[in-house]
Amino acid sequence: MTTLTVPATTQLLIGGTWRDAGDGATYEDRNPANGATLARVAEATRDDVDAAVAAARAAFDAGKWSGMTAARRAKILYKMAQLIGERSKELALREVRDNGKTIGTAKGEMGAIVDCFEFYAGAVSKHYGQTLPPPMSTYLANTVREPVGVVGAIVPWNFPLLLASWKVAPALAAGCTVVLKPAPATPLTAIELGKIALEAGVPEGVLNIVTGSSRELGQWIVEHPAIDKIAFTGSTVTGKLVAQTAAQTLKRVTLELGGKSPSVIFDDADLDGAVAGALYGIYYNAGQTCEARSRILLQRGIYDRFIAAFAQKAALIRVGDPEDPQTHVGAITMREQFDKIASYCRIGAEEGARAIVGGAAASLPGDLAGGMFWNVTAYEAKASDRIAREEIFGPVVSFVPFETEAQAIALANDSEYGLSASVWSQNIGRANRTARAIRSGTVAINTPYAVFPGVPFGGYKQSGYGRELGLETMNLYSETKSVLTYIGEKPLNPFGV
Ligand code: NAD
User: What domains can be seen in the chain, in order of their start residue?
Assistant: First the structure.
């Protein structure tokens, strides 16, 4: 077993220096699986945010980072990838204890984080401007890509280091400086990322990290006049507030928000593959996944067989100790989230939805008796039921029947969200027609895996705007500057005077 050296009290990273919060305040960070205290975490004040932003601004304005050659900046990002890889065991365990996710899930994430840093390290030297057709024969015209400036990166608790990396890696690759704010419940791996960045050679002030338990902390970052862009992942409700606040200073904003993503399963789907994919699509990370396939739309001909097979396999899913490699589903990360899941299961029962699997908290023995665990749960529901329409963000899925391809598409699109979808069919024409008709940022056909570096990820509709993970993401961390050069022999004299 890897040992952890979580410090008793964590600090803020500001201008390359680790320091306590301005007034010395801290809050307690606990393991959701057993209630154990993991650390006391620095509670940043507004002055601390100002200091972090000032450090990021100064580093940006001095050109310490953006002025480096692309090759040098890329090498530093590759070094970060290497250090993350070397420490992945310890980072994974830290994530497990902070978040409650399973060790298997966390290890997979660490590999994906290495891939993400490597992808953007490779992108640094390929982020070109263009030579344009000149508007006049005496002109040269070209564009250059310049970093957008200081980025405020705000992340949720469900994939703490992964989602931080989706922002920090492209922001650094584009030459930006960053103030990173992890979620209150899961700050520990972001702090490690700060250490890794310094060790890899990221200059002082380029990556700053502020932690805290209040909602104001994020608000202060979004309001701050010296920040140029906000990269936010979180709920749609908070995302709307972020957009409103950022509008006051016309900051650039990318929003990765909530979802109620469907698995659309046609009669002709491979039953085993579709069942395995649908189980993973909802129960992976205890359903605390923005792209969780929390609606399973089933064509009539396969409806009963699918539900029977799903229930049989769901009974084999092990909810338990997150640190046990045999566990499939770990703890629910936060009390509020646990209560929300419980309340949706009550709502489901009130709405007349029929529980096929689960529907209640899981009681575990020993040290885990005080932890927050929920049994994998599935309901037969109506498309209009709240449990089939609203984001629950837990291991709860609804089965809804359909008859025709057109109905499947209408049901899939009948949502305020549009983050992801899956389509299961052996008919490639039908699968692709359906994929094209669904209004969401990602559609996976006959596979549970659809998130990879290099493949843009983001939402339609109220799932947000902007894309992460793609090469195009580099554009969202940069501005286009047009440069026009007059090359005529005679000077221009527009007024003729
Ligand atoms: P949340 O919106 O409550 O919080 C997200 C982050 O914003 C946290 O760091 C929080 O401290 C901060 N915050 C809170 N109030 C703020 C404010 N007024 N201004 C600025 N920042 C503020 O979300 P959560 O509960 O942490 O995460 C769950 C949500 O995130 C779900 O809705 C999920 O779908 C979504 N999510 C989306 C994606 C995606 O890529 N689309 C990925 C993961 C999670």
Answer: 12-257+463-482 (3.40.605.10), 262-445 (3.40.309.10)
Any atom of ligand 1 within 6 Å of the Cβ of 160? no
176 catalytic? Reply is no
Nearest Cα residue to atom 9 of ligand 1? 183
CA angle (451, 455, 457) in 5-degree steps: 65
Q: Whose CA is nearest to atom 44 of ligand 1?
A: 290
Nearest-CA residue for atom 11 of ligand 1: 183
Q: Does the beta carbon of 395 sit less than 6 angstroms from any atom of ligand 1? A: no
Tens of pLDDT, residues 380-406: 999 999 999 999 999 999 999 999 999
What number is the average pLDDT over the span 458-487?
98
- For 302-359, write each residue's pLDDT tens digit: 999 999 999 999 999 999 999 999 999 999 999 999 999 999 999 999 999 999 999 9
Task: Write the pLDDT tens digit of every residue in 434-469.
Answer: 999 999 999 999 999 999 999 999 999 999 999 999
Average pLDDT across the chain, whole number: 97
Q: Can you give the pTM of this predicted structure?
A: 0.97
**Known catalytic residue at 290:** yes
Over range 475-493, report the average pLDDT.
Answer: 97
Please give the pLDDT value at position 1: 44
